[in-house]
Amino acid sequence: MDININTHQDINTDFCGTPVHIEEDVSRVVLRTLETMMVDDSGLVHGGFIFGLADYAAMIAVNHPNVVLGGAEVKFIKPVIAGDVVTAEAEVIRKQGKKHIVRVDVTRDDDTVFKGEFTCFVLEKHILEE
User: Fold this and answer.
1) Which residues, at least 6 apart from 44, have a Cβ–Cβ distance to it below 8 Å?
2) How confident is the model at residue 2 (pLDDT cuts 50, 70, 90)?
3) Is residue 36 situated within a structural domain?
């Protein structure tokens, strides 16, 4: 990786993915889905794990210790089955002061399974600081 990750230091990479590339305003995160993510005996992975992967990729594309998610517009395109390996590619596409708009695409092999636009904010201090 070209840049150190400055945010979400204690995230569980089993559930949110492992960063494999980061540079200014860009990240790539890979998630190997697990049986514990399944919602039924068909192997369908709960969409929250795919959203979490995309959210994590957006956060590290912004890569600021005080980045938070303000909103997201997302589309789930194809189902993910336990055992699938999915990759989130995130890119900051616009900055307006504290506000960063990040586009995220999640793929399995060559198939897009999820697309989203995440509105992230860089705060002056940690959101839990008074």
Assistant:
1) 38, 79, 80, 81, 82
2) low
3) yes
Whether 68 is in a domain gets the answer yes
The CATH number covering residue 110 comes to: 3.10.129.10
What is the distance between the alpha carbons of residues 106 and 76, in angstroms, rounded to a whole number?
9
29's tokens: 């995160």
- Tell whether 90 is covered by a domain: yes
pLDDT one-digit tens code per residue, 41-68: 999 999 999 999 999 999 999 999 999 9
Q: What is the DSSP letter of 46?
A: P
In a domain, 111, yes or no: yes
71-85 burial code (b ≥16 CB/10 A, e <16): ebebeeeeebebebe
Residue 48, both tokens = 């929250």
What range defines the domain where residue 74 resides? 13-122
Residue among 77, 78, 74, 79 nearest 90 (CA): 74
Q: How many domains does the chain have?
A: 1
